[in-house]
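Ticket #4471: structure export looks truncated?
Reporter: QA, pipeline team
Priority: medium

Steps to reproduce: submit the single chain below to the structure queue and open the exported record.
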Amino acid sequence: MKSSIISEKAKIGKNVEIGHFCIIDEDVVIGDNTVIKNYVELRKGTIVGDNCFLDSRVTSSGNCVIGNNVTIRYDSIIARGVKIGDNTYISPKMMSNNLNTNMHQIGGAEIGKNVFIGTNCVLQHGIKIGDNTILGSLSFINKDIPTNEVWFGNPAKFYKKNDDVENSNDIHLNR
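Actual output as written to the record:
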């Protein structure tokens, strides 16, 4: 008994696996060969690329774009308007935000390609994270992060250049 709710206006690609108790709203697009585990909620306007893996309890607030070959692990929250580049790996319990302190929507984070985001990271509204970036676990990201760098801390601070760029596009394979 799957008991998932999938809108008739959602577009589901080929070879997509959808787990138990998921909610897939209208105008959601899910690409080919994507795996969506249990209790996932994808709100209106969310686009998920090909060959993605969305672990249990991942939530999208809507109008998000998730690229190809993206892994989003357990209990992560993707705020409205977030954009995630191809080959990105998001560890469990990442949270993003799209509201400023006055509760006005100003846009979600833009996450580049080949990015690794550690467990329990928090991404502030409207920031940009460059390609081939590594963000350490428990980091609070409150400003733009350049391409090919490693950052961590609360608030996150620069640690070093990411010299392992050649291997960073393989991180999505470690589910």
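Status: closed, not a bug. The export was complete when the record was re-opened. Leaving a note from the reviewer for reference: Confidence is low (pLDDT under 50) at residues 168-175.
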